[in-house]
Design brief:
single chain; 131 residues; alpha+beta; three-stranded antiparallel β-sheet
């Protein structure tokens, strides 16, 4: 995968997460790679530790570095319910951020964390999260 393809895959994962969190996002040609909601830039979850770390803490993901099943070599990162191969990313750090975002997307898509506080549609709901 080229650098540009990898970059676009990161932005696509961020777009999906933003949508699942209830945001209506746009991307403008003059600011490629930045997603916007109204005039506010969205977090770059797959590319910024500050944004990614908030997801890790909010969704209480467990992280483990492991060998992919059925492979003698290689490294993978298990983040919550997902497994991401490190070799598919520029480095271990990028793989970890991608794994965290992918895990949160998975949890939200499968309804496992639909009431977590970061989920915009439920911010005003006084009920505690149950994930």
């Amino acid at each position: 995968m080229s650098d540009e393809e990898y970059f676009r895959s990161c932005v696509a994962k961020e777009r999906r997460l933003a949508q699942l969190l209830g945001h209506e996002v746009e991307e403008y040609a003059d600011s490629a790679g930045t997603l916007w909601e109204n005039r506010t830039p969205m977090p770059r979850w797959t590319r910024d530790w500050h944004a990614c770390g908030a997801l890790l803490a909010e969704y209480r993901l467990s992280i483990a570095f492991t060998c992919p099943p059925g492979e003698a070599e290689g490294e993978a990162i298990a983040a919550g319910p997902v497994l991401v191969r490190v070799a598919d990313h520029p480095d271990r750090e990028r793989a970890l951020m991608f794994a965290i975002v992918k895990a949160v997307v998975h949890l939200l898509e499968h309804g496992e964390c639909h009431r977590m506080p970061l989920h915009r549609r439920h911010r005003a709901d006084p009920a505690p999260p149950h994930c």
